Amino acid sequence: MSKQLPWFRVYTRMVDDDKLKLLAFEDRWHFVALLCLKGEGLLDRGGMPPVC
Question: Whole domain around residue 26: which residue ranges?
Fold first, then answer.
């Protein structure tokens, strides 16, 4: 049996979301990357350096 890849659900209307449109175009990709990190559990581990 192959290992299943973890996933998270996003809605197709996400591109039309008014709050996401407030982000710069480049930062929207960073937001998706953060969702991926959260889905992997990497943001839940201790010892992460502060983001800001």
Answer: 15-42
